[in-house]
């Protein structure tokens, strides 16, 4: 029991204005959650792997979609389309290969064998990048204008760099065979 | 109450000897984590030094799950048993969980820019379900802050806490269920390959965050307890005052 | 060190947020504790209160 009998300040009564702020936040949250769920259901980031994109090429037509695949090291060529940077390369997934022309700078971590997720559309014809033959070379290329990197959860120390360089060279030699060089 | 004991009371606050030493351990652990994270753990050969974000991002995400799971259990116990202890625990865990969730979203976004080449993707299932979880829990806290009848407020909040819990496994498993709808890699801890010092530093990070969570839970629980004691105290005073007024009214008029 | 700017922002905000929240809990607790009698704070021992 306390011996402090002095009257304490009464607890402030929550005013109508103070109550309305949490209610407005609550309503805002409901609206935002509904909007986000609708956005996810209606147009989530959905990418076709390279093999699926090739299989659905006719169905997709000139529609924009997102494609995923791992770049083949020996195929990568960087250049310019007028004054704008462009990078051409081939990606592979599920045993299928797709030639890519990406208009813009490549992603910072863009590198061979690390999958990329690209927004763009199929275009029939040869890739408009000088010196790029493309591993697929099937008369189609995927014109991309947005590149993201989908790295995996395999974290490797850069301390074993020399050993991995040797492994990388072996892989590069193997992919050179794919590129036909 | 004398002046001396009043000062002692104010100084002690919601702390105790245990929370004091736990707080010291958290600070020491955070310093050790910075040293380990920036100087002892190696860079990644793909992500280079950006990988060091894992030591704050993954612990934040893990403790988000822990905190919101506690909110769910507390909510259930409130609805089932009307347990005040669990009600306060649910509220405390929700507030701390919202901070961890905000940090998960923020550090993930900052980590995403150099690695994925984007801060955010509105169609990414992992990112958006995590944001939805965060918003639901903001709603939970806004219900708690709305005042009114305490039991009704606790029950409304408990329902929201349980709805949020439904989203927890969706967030966690989204990288497995919708691997073709997210840029996010699969779990680094359960499915990943973490080497030597990277794994050790991550474990230290989780331990430091967990210790901080425990410290914050104890303090936040006691704050909620004090707030309730104050309300109850105010109510007692009001009843005493009302009784005094009633006695005064019944006294004979001379 | 690569990506130092991102790391400083990510780590800095995380540690600062934790510290700010901890400081807020401590001050809020002290303010409230001053208004609640010792015997209604269950976690306190007699020694703490003296």
Number of helices of chain A: 4
Distance between the amino and carboxyl termini of chain A = 90 Å
Oligomer: heterotrimer
* Spatial order of strands in the largest sheet of chain A: 2-4-5-7-6
What is the SS-derived class of chain B? mainly alpha
Mean pLDDT across the residues of chain B is: 88
Helical amount among residues of chain B, as a percent range?
Answer: over 70%
Tell me the β content of chain B: under 5%
The average pLDDT score of chain A comes to 81
Query: Which regions of chain A have little confidence, pLDDT < 50, spanning 5+ residues?
Result: none
The greatest interface here is: A-B, 54 and 56 residues
* Regions with little confidence, pLDDT below 50 for 5+ residues of chain B: 1-10
Describe this entry's structure for a reader.
Chain A is an alpha+beta fold. Chain A has four helices and seven strands. Chain A has helices at 16-43, 50-55, 57-60, 161-179; strands at 47-49, 65-71, 77-81, 84-93, 96-103, 116-124, 140-149. Chain B has a domain at 19-184. The radius of gyration of chain B is 23 Å and the shape is elongated. Chain B is mainly alpha-helical. Chain B has helices at residues 3-12, 17-40, 54-81, 84-116, 125-145, 150-177, 196-250. The N and C termini of chain C lie far apart (52 Å). Chain C is mainly alpha-helical. Mean pLDDT of chain C is 83; it is low at 45-50. Chain C has helices spanning 4-33, 46-49. Chains A and B meet through helix 1, strand 1 and strand 7 of A and helix 4, helix 5 and helix 7 of B.
Annotate the secondary structure layout.
The complex is a heterotrimer of chains A (181), B (254) and C (50).
Chain A: H1 16-43, E1 47-49, H2 50-55, H3 57-60, E2 65-71, E3 77-81, E4 84-93, E5 96-103, E6 116-124, E7 140-149, H4 161-179
Parallel strand pairs in A: 1-2, 5-7
Antiparallel strand pairs in A: 2-4, 2-6, 3-4, 4-5, 6-7
Chain B: H1 3-12, H2 17-40, H3 54-81, H4 84-116, H5 125-145, H6 150-177, H7 196-250
Helix pairs in contact in B: 2-7, 3-4, 3-6, 3-7, 4-5, 4-7, 5-6
Chain C: H1 4-33, H2 46-49
Features:
heterotrimer, A: 181 residues, alpha+beta, OB fold (Dihydrolipoamide Acetyltransferase, E2P), five-stranded mixed barrel, 29% strand, B: 254 residues, mainly alpha, 7 helices, 78% helix, 0% strand
């Amino acid at each position: 029991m306390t011996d402090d009998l002095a009257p304490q300040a009464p607890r402030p009564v929550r005013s109508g204005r103070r109550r309305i702020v949490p209610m407005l936040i609550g309503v805002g949250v409901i609206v935002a959650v509904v909007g986000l769920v609708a956005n996810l259901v209606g147009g989530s980031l959905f990418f076709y792997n390279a093999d699926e994109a090739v299989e659905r090429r006719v169905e997709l037509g000139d529609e924009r979609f997102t494609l995923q695949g791992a770049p083949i090291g020996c195929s990568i060529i960087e250049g310019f389309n007028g004054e704008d940077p462009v990078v051409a390369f081939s990606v592979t997934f599920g045993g299928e290969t797709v030639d890519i022309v990406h208009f813009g700078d490549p992603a910072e971590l863009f590198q061979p064998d690390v999958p990329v997720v690209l927004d763009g559309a199929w275009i029939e014809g040869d890739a408009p990048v000088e010196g790029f033959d493309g591993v697929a070379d099937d008369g189609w290329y995927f014109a991309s204008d947005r590149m993201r990197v989908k790295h995996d959860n395999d974290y490797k120390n850069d301390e074993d760099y020399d050993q991995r360089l040797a492994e990388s060279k072996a892989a590069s030699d193997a992919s050179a065979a794919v590129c036909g060089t | 109450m004398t002046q001396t004991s009043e000062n002692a009371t104010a100084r002690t606050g919601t702390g105790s000897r245990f929370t004091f030493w736990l707080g010291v351990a958290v600070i020491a652990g955070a310093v050790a984590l910075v040293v380990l994270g920036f100087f002892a753990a190696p860079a990644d050969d793909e992500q280079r030094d950006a990988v060091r974000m894992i030591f704050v991002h993954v612990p934040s995400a893990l403790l988000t799950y822990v905190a919101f799971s506690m909110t769910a259990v507390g909510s259930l116990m409130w609805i089932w048993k009307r347990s005040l202890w669990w009600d306060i625990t649910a509220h405390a865990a929700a507030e701390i969980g919202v901070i961890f969730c905000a940090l998960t979203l923020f550090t993930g976004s900052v980590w995403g820019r150099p690695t994925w080449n984007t801060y955010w993707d509105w169609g990414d299932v992992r990112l958006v379900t995590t944001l939805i979880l965060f918003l639901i829990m903001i709603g939970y806290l806004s219900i708690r802050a709305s005042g009114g009848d305490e039991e009704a407020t606790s029950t409304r909040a408990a329902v929201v806490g349980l709805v949020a819990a439904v989203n927890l496994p969706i967030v966690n498993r989204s990288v497995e269920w919708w691997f073709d709808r997210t840029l996010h890699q699969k779990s680094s801890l359960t499915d990943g390959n973490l080497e030597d010092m990277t794994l050790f530093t991550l474990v230290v990070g989780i331990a430091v965050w967990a210790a901080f969570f425990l410290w914050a839970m104890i303090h936040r629980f006691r704050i909620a307890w004090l707030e309730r004691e104050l309300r109850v105290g105010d109510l007692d005073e009001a009843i005493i005052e009302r009784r005094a007024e009633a006695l005064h009214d019944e006294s004979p008029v001379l | 060190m690569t990506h130092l700017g991102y790391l400083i922002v990510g780590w800095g905000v995380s540690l600062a947020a934790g510290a700010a929240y901890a400081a807020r809990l401590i001050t809020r607790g002290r303010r409230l504790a001053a208004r609640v009698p010792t015997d209604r704070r269950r976690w306190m021992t007699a020694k703490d209160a003296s």
